[in-house]
Each structure stands twice: as structure tokens, then as C-alpha cells.
Amino acid sequence: MTTEPTVDLTAARFIDELLAKRSDEELAKIQRYFKTGDGDYGEGDVFVGVRMGDVFALAKAFIDLSPSEIEVLLEDERHEVRAGGCSVMAKQAARKKTTEDRRTELYELYLRRLDRINNWDLVDLAARDVIGAHLIDRPRDPLYDLARSDHHWSRRTAIYATHAFIKRGELDDTFALAEVLLDDPEDLMHKAVGGWLREAGKHDQPRLLAFLDEHAAAMPRTTLRYATEKLTTEEKARFRSR
User: In this structure, are residues 77 and 26 in contact, taking their beta carbons and an 8 Å threshold?
Assistant: First the structure.
């Protein structure tokens, strides 16, 4: 009887397998998609040209990486390697057999290395399952601390993590954090806040309408556009006219 070979669960092996999948064609696509110029949100980020589908498939194969090995991935300058680290964290945190102690380790790792989770897609990969899910049965105060941070990706983490609550029909923190973040100067935050208001509104549209009645006049246009996306044409016109 033959057995499957054991995967060498190290960051070094992950990186070797990841880099074997890079291509110049994919790199050209990525460079058109992410803003990495001077002053852009991705300034200084380094891409090697690996499809995100390949990154996620590799993360699934390396789902048992230890937190210390995941941190090695997060420390890497190459974007796709850090994306792999975030994907492993998320998959591991969401897996039913993962222990609560390990989920706590992943939560603490994410917050400790927010300096390396430094682009919108990296936050979006892991914030819900690593941060939000960890706080479902715990005080939500850490999210409000993140929302008031000067660090752009900390603030995005705060609102994005509430997706874990929205899935359960718990909307209080999404609306409360959206109010905290309404004056955020970053366009990427406008999209995130508006997007989660929209998702919360799918569960409780009267509450979304009440929130918009109170705040639409002061909302950034992008936030309002995303928040009203699923409303009727008449409702959109009413709020946007303000």
C-alpha cells in the first residue's frame, strides 16, 4: 500500500512552490490592477506574478503551517507570499478542527503583524475569519481601538471583521463602526464602509434606511454609492440628492 508524501510544512517550502508558479503575463496583469506608484496605497509593494487562485490553492495545502512559519510569510517583501500567509491564517482559523488556543494565536499574530498586512486584499483575506470570528463571543472593544487608529489597514480591519457578525445577523457593530469611520480620508475605506452597510442592509433594510436618513448628507459619495447599491432607484435618488 502506498501513502501520500508528507508535505514539508515550512515557509521556505511554501515560497519555493509559490515562486514556481510565477509568470510575466500574470505580473503584467497584477501591475495594472494594484496601485504601487509614489503616494499610492501600495507604494513600494513588490509583486512576482502569481495568480491568486494558485496562492489560495497552495494555502489550502499548507493549512497546518505553524504561526511562527506563517509569520515568516508575512515578513516577506513579496505581496503574493504575504497573501499566502493571510490565506493560511484565514483557512486555519475557519477550519472546524482548529483549537481555540490556535485561533487565539492567529488572532494575536494578525494584530501583532498588522505592519505586514499592508494592502487592501491582505486585510480582506483574513480579517473576517481571524479577527471577527474570534470576537463573536468576546467583547468587541478591540475593533473600536482599530477603527480609531492612524493606521489605514487597522481601520479597514475593524470594519471588515464585522462580516463575521453580519453573517450571524448581528449588525450593531457594523453600524456603530461605520459611524466612527464616516469621516475617514481614504477612498478604500469609503468602499469598505459602504459595502458593509449594504450587506447589513440585506438583513435589516429599515435600519439601513434609518442610518442613511441620519448620515447620507455627510457621507462621502463613494460610501453612499456602495451603501445604496441594492436599494430602489427612487431610494437611491432620494439619498444621493442630499
Answer: no
